Amino acid sequence: MKALTFKRYGKSPDIGLADIDRPTLQPDELLVQVHAAAVNPIDNMVPPGTFKPVLHFKLPAVLGSDLAGVVVDVGSRVTRFKPGDEVFASIFDMGRGSLAEFAAVPESAAALKPPNLDFVQAAAVPMVALTSWQALTERAKLKRGQKVFIPAGSGGIGTFAIQLAHQLGFKVATTVSAGSVELVRGLGADEIIDYKTQDFEKILSGYDAMLGSVQGDAIEKSVGILKPGSSIVSLVGPLDPRFAEQRGLNFFLKFVFGLMSRKIRKLAGKKNVDYSFLFVRPDGQQLAQIAELLKTERIRPVIDKVFPFDQAKQALEYLALGRAKGKVVVKIR
């Protein structure tokens, strides 16, 4: 089968389409013929080795995490799915990738595709949906009526996180350029900052959580807008000692991550704000709950651009430009 792979870590990872063996199923897995796969910022961070100490791949490795497709075979212990089922899933952090003609998906990570979404739309959902759900409800533990700051509201994570936060009854502030104001207002943003002409840290105050989804100094600046007892959940780093503990990493990596995150943890600690780094966890049950919101169209995927499979590498390059309004998806079938 064909897949988008990288052959080595570093500045020259040799990313491109390659012929590899079709996955061998484990008893608790589904073999999915992938119809579409979304790309995410972390897909551009893996080949250079940014997360090499914590994400483990056997090289050459297939890129991608999000997928939507049709089940063609099931393992002997699978009970919830059968061949012919249309599913979607995230297989992030499993040492495998989704930008391929076929993918092995643990039963626990999959959910039935909402029937009102096509495969491209469904593929745009899993990682951003699960990340938003876990960050807002599990890590930040927000309650109805509380306020969350979600910067870069027109991006892949922002467009979904704003909608989910709105549906859960949270008040949302975000930053966008003037051309995206109507987009994020339609998604449910309550307070919108034009980052080109305004400084969010001078306007916002009294927030209960911040979703750190952009590189740069936004996370440090956000400390000033948060209440004591609030939280910063970062998706982009720096990694922290708690993350090392959760993954059972060695003392050296815990020490290194402590140094990396020392500045933000110190700033946050002065205001009694909790800082943590989050890796999304594939979860089919949560994805099934999100599918119910998608079925009723209370939440919709926002897609910027769709690339054919033979341009999968270009999809990653386009995503890296940081201009996408919504998700970037690769159509495989």
Structural class: alpha/beta
Q: Please describe the biggest sheet, giving its number of strands, its sense, and whether it closes into a barrel.
A: 7 strands, mixed
How much helix, percentage-wise, in residues?
Answer: 25-40%
End-to-end Cα distance? 13 Å
**What is CATH's topology name of the largest domain?**
Quinone Oxidoreductase, Chain A, domain 1
Number of helices: 11
- What Rg, in angstroms, do the CA atoms define? 19 Å
| CATH-derived architecture of the largest domain | Alpha-Beta Complex
User: CATH superfamily of the largest domain, called what?
Assistant: Medium-chain alcohol dehydrogenases, catalytic domain
Give the strand content: 25-35%
Strand and helix order: EEEHEEEEEHHEHEHEHEHEHHEHEHE
At the first level of CATH, the class of the largest domain is: Alpha Beta
Mean pLDDT: 96
Shape: globular
EC number: 1.-.-.-
Keywords: Oxidoreductase
Organism: Pelomonas margarita
GO molecular function: oxidoreductase activity
